[in-house]
Design goal:
By secondary structure, this protein is mainly α. Helix content is about 55%, strand content about 5%. The chain has 25 helices and 7 strands. The strands form 2 sheets. A 5-stranded mixed beta sheet has the order 4-3-5-7-6, with helices on both faces. Strands 1-2 form a two-stranded antiparallel ribbon. Helix 9 (about 185-205) packs antiparallel against helix 10. The termini are far apart.
Length: about 625
C-alpha cells in the first residue's frame, strides 16, 4: 500500500459517459491525454473504451442522495437562528409584504451592510413557500447543490467520472461546506456564483476556447459582487494562467483572443449596473438623506473601508492558515501533507492544472489575510477549488495506509470528543449544564452522547477503513444535529419561546415594542410587534419607545434587564426570562416615572427612518 504513488490515477471504474463508442480527441478527459515526459496514455483511456455506461448512473444517484441528506436533514424543523439568519429572513419577508425590492429595510432602518441579491432570494423563497421556516434555508441548500453539480461536471470533463465522484464527495463532507450549506447566510450563495465563475473560466482556459462560458463567468461574478462584494475573486485565476502560459506548461487550451478577453469583465459589469444605476438615481433625488446615507454606507464604508480598515473581527495575518484551514477545511486539510508533494511532481512534469487551482486558492487566502478584519467564512469560496485540485489524487491517496489511519483517527477523535463532552455535562460538574440550560434554554447532551457512542463503535469496526469511518461519523453528527438538535434548541435560539412567554403575560390586544433586542424577536413576534432600531443608538431607541408607550395603555416595551434605569419603576416591570444570554422584562407607560426625564441621545443612525415611514 505504501508504495502506491499519491498522484496516481487508477482505471476509471465509474465508466466514462462516452464509453462504448469511438472517443474523439476533443472528448477525451484532460487527465487521459499524454502527460509531458511520458510516452503512453494513462489507463483511464483504455478503461473508458472497455466498460459500458452504467445505467442507471448509480454514482450520481449516490452523490445526490448523500448531498440531500447531509445538507437537508432537519430541513423545516427549526426557525432562523442568530446571528445572521433572523435578519435575512426578516428582510425577505418584509420585501414580499411591502414590495420594497430595491432598498431592503430592517425594521425602521435601511439595511446597508450587504448588497441585495441574497435578500431577493430570501424573498423569493418566502413568496414560494409562504412560511419562514421552509423558506429561509432554501437559497443556501440550492446553492450548495448547485456548487456540487458544477464541481462534478468540471471534474468529469477534466478527469472522468471516477475522479468527479471522489472530488465531489470530498467537497460534500468538508466541514465548512456542509455547515454553510445548512446555514442561511450569504456565503453559500456567494460560493455558487464564484464557483460558476471558476467553472466558466476554467472551461475556457483548459478546454476552450469557450467564449460563451467565459462571458457566463463574467455574469456570474457580477451577480457575486451584488451578493457580497468579493464576487470578483474568480478573475484572480488569470494571474496563475499567465504564469503557466509563460512557463510553457501543458494542459492549457492554445488560442488567441485579442479584444475578446474583455468580454468577461464587461459581462461582470452588466448585473452590477442593472442594480446600481436605479439605486444611484433614487439616492440622488432631493429630500432622500437616508437613501444617500444608504448609498454611501453600502458602496464605500461596507466595502473599501471594511476591507482596508476593518472595525471588528480583527485577527492576525496568520488567522486563516492556523485557525481556519486546519479545522474548517477538514478532511481536505488533513490530506495536504501527502498531496503537496504529488502536486509538486505534477507541476514539474508540466501540468498546468494544479498551478491554476492552487495558485487561485493561495491568492484568495492572501487577499483576505491582508485585511485586518477576518472571519472564517470569508475564505469558503476557495474550498471547491481545493477539492477540484485534490480530486485526481484521491484514488491513490485512499490506497495509502497512512491516509486511512489519519482519517480513522480523525473520526475517532470527533466521536470521542462528543461522547466525553456530553458525558461530562451529564455526570460531571453540574453547574455548567445548569448554567447553559438557564441562560440559553438548551440541553443537547442526550443526542450528542448517542452520536458520540455510535461514532466510537463505527470507528472501532472500520479502523482499517478510515475514510469510511470518517464518512459514517460525519453523517451521524449532521443527522443527530438536524433530527434532534434542531427541535431541542429551536425554541431558545430562535427567540420564539421568549416571545410566546411575553405574549402570554400581556392582556389580549397588547402591542409590544422592542428596545435593544435582536432581529429574531421581531421575526417571531405574534400580534402587533415593532422595533425601534438595531444600529440606532440605544438612547435614541429608548426615547422613541418612551414616547410610543405614552400613546396607549396597550403599549408595552420589551427591554433587557441590564438597561433598567431610574426612569422605570422596578415593581411594575414584568419578568419574561432569559434569551440570547440576556434577561428580559416588560414595562408599560405606568411603569415610567413621571418625574424622570431621560437624557437626550448624543447621536442617531443616518439610516433610521422617520417613525411614520
Amino acid at each position: 500500500m505504501a508504495s502506491v504513488p499519491a498522484d496516481s490515477e487508477p482505471p476509471d471504474s465509474l465508466a466514462h459517459p462516452l464509453a462504448g463508442r469511438v472517443v474523439l480527441a476533443r472528448d477525451t478527459p484532460v487527465s487521459a491525454r499524454p502527460v509531458p515526459g511520458t510516452d503512453t496514455l494513462p489507463t483511464t483511456t483504455r478503461a473508458h473504451h472497455a466498460r459500458p455506461v452504467p445505467r442507471p448512473p448509480w454514482d450520481l444517484r449516490l452523490l445526490a442522495l448523500l448531498a440531500l441528506w447531509l445538507l437537508g436533514v432537519g430541513f423545516g424543523l427549526r426557525e432562523p437562528w442568530p446571528a445572521d439568519e433572523p435578519r435575512f429572513a426578516l428582510m425577505g419577508r418584509d420585501i414580499v409584504e411591502t414590495g420594497r425590492w430595491l432598498i431592503p429595510h430592517r425594521g425602521p432602518e435601511l439595511y446597508a451592510e450587504k448588497p441585495p441579491v441574497f435578500l431577493w432570494l430570501q424573498a423569493a423563497a418566502y413568496a414560494l413557500t409562504g412560511q419562514t421556516r421552509l423558506a429561509f434555508l432554501l437559497p443556501s441548500l440550492l446553492a450548495a447543490l448547485g456548487t456540487l453539480a458544477l464541481t462534478w461536471d468540471l471534474l468529469r470533463r477534466l478527469h472522468g467520472r471516477r475522479i468527479a465522484f471522489w472530488g465531489t464527495l470530498a467537497l460534500l463532507v468538508s466541514v465548512q461546506f456542509t455547515l454553510q450549506g445548512r446555514t442561511a447566510q450569504i456565503d453559500m450563495v456567494l460560493v455558487l456564483f464564484t464557483t460558476l465563475g471558476l467553472y466558466g473560466i476554467l472551461r475556457h482556459l483548459l478546454l476552450g476556447p469557450a467564449w460563451g462560458w467565459y462571458v457566463l463567468a463574467g455574469l456570474a461574478t457580477g451577480l457575486g459582487v451584488i451578493t457580497k462584494g468579493t464576487g470578483f475573486l474568480p478573475w484572480l485565476l488569470l494571474i496563475p494562467y499567465v504564469i503557466a502560459r509563460r512557463q510553457g506548461l501543458q494542459g492549457l487550451a492554445r488560442f488567441e483572443g485579442g479584444w475578446r478577453w474583455s468580454w468577461g469583465p464587461l459581462a461582470m459589469l452588466l448585473p452590477i449596473l442593472v442594480w446600481m444605476l436605479p439605486l444611484l438615481y433614487v439616492a440622488a433625488q432631493p429630500g432622500n438623506a437616508e437613501l444617500a446615507a444608504y448609498r454611501d454606507e453600502l458602496l464605500f464604508r461596507q466595502t473599501i473601508t471594511r476591507y482596508a480598515n476593518a472595525w471588528h473581527h480583527l485577527k492576525p495575518w496568520w488567522y486563516y492558515l492556523v485557525e481556519v484551514v486546519p479545522v474548517l477545511w477538514l478532511p481536505l486539510s488533513l490530506l495536504l501533507p501527502w498531496a503537496v508533494p504529488a502536486w509538486w511532481r505534477r507541476m514539474r512534469r508540466g501540468d498546468a492544472r494544479p498551478l491554476l487551482l492552487l495558485g487561485w486558492v493561495a491568492l484568495v487566502l492572501l487577499f483576505f489575510s491582508i485585511s485586518p478584519g477576518k472571519r472564517g467564512v470569508y475564505v469558503l469560496p476557495a474550498l471547491p477549488a481545493l477539492a477540484i485540485a485534490l480530486a485526481p489524487l484521491l484514488p491513490g491517496l485512499l490506497r495509502r495506509a497512512g491516509v486511512q489511519r489519519a482519517l480513522g483517527s480523525l473520526a475517532l477523535a470527533i466521536a470521542a470528543l462528543l461522547a466525553l463532552a456530553a458525558g461530562w455535562a451529564q455526570l460531571g460538574e453540574p453547574r455548567f449544564e445548569q448554567r447553559l440550560l438557564a441562560q440559553n434554554g438548551v440541553a443537547p447532551w442526550d443526542w450528542l452522547l448517542a452520536v458520540g457512542v455510535a461514532g466510537l463503535v463505527a470507528s472501532a469496526l472500520l479502523w482499517r477503513r478510515g475514510a469510511l469511518a470518517f464518512g459514517v461519523v460525519i453523517t451521524l453528527l449532521w443527522s443527530g444535529y438536524g433530527l434532534f438538535g434542531y427541535p431541542d434548541m429551536d425554541g431558545a435560539r430562535s427567540g420564539r419561546a421568549l416571545m410566546e412567554r411575553a405574549r402570554a403575560l400581556l392582556p389580549e390586544g397588547a402591542a409590544i415594542g422592542i428596545v435593544g433586542g435582536p432581529e429574531q424577536f421581531l421575526l417571531q413576534g405574534v400580534g402587533e410587534v415593532r422595533a425601534f432600531g438595531y444600529r440606532t443608538p440605544l438612547e435614541h431607541q429608548r426615547q422613541l419607545a418612551d414616547a410610543w408607550l405614552k400613546r396607549s395603555e396597550r403599549h408595552w416595551m420589551l427591554i433587557q434587564r441590564g438597561d433598567k434605569d431610574d426612569c422605570i419603576e422596578p415593581a411594575r416591570a414584568i419578568e419574561v426570562g432569559w434569551s440570547n444570554r440576556r434577561h428580559w422584562y416588560l414595562v408599560n407607560a405606568a411603569g415610567l416615572r413621571a418625574d424622570c426625564v431621560p437624557p437626550p441621545p448624543e447621536s442617531t443612525s443616518a439610516l433610521h427612518l422617520d417613525p411614520e415611514d
